[in-house]
Specification:
The protein has about 100 residues and is an alpha+beta fold. It has 2 helices and 8 strands. The chain starts with a strand and ends with a strand.
């Protein structure tokens, strides 16, 4: 389950979405998305659940409380990532972690 704070593109009013994904048999070199982490996910609607758009780049860094003012999904994603990069409270891991959908 993914808790939703804000939707950049797609139906508004979501608070929780169910995600399905495949866990690879071999290590692909990406850290998993940790439970409780705050991320911007790229999801596709599939009937009664969501899947990650890419198994290699399912999400990017994000910080709670980011006020997104840009228009259009691409500019909004850039704004969210830029907020992490310029925040004095962002950790090194928040700024550098690439993740895959499967957790640790």
């Amino acid at each position: 389950m993914v808790l939703v704070e804000h939707v950049l593109k797609g139906p508004s009013g979501l608070s929780v979405v169910r995600c399905q994904y495949v866990v690879p048999d071999v290590f692909l070199g990406y850290a998993g998305v940790r439970s409780g982490s705050y991320r911007l996910f790229f999801l596709n609607a599939e009937h009664d659940h969501y899947t990650f758009v890419s198994p290699y780049y399912p999400s990017v860094v994000a910080m709670a409380g980011t006020n997104v003012e840009s228009q259009g999904p691409r500019n909004q994603v850039i704004e969210v990532v830029a907020e992490v990069l310029r925040s004095p409270t962002a950790t090194f891991d928040q700024r550098t972690t690439r993740s895959a959908p499967y957790g640790d």
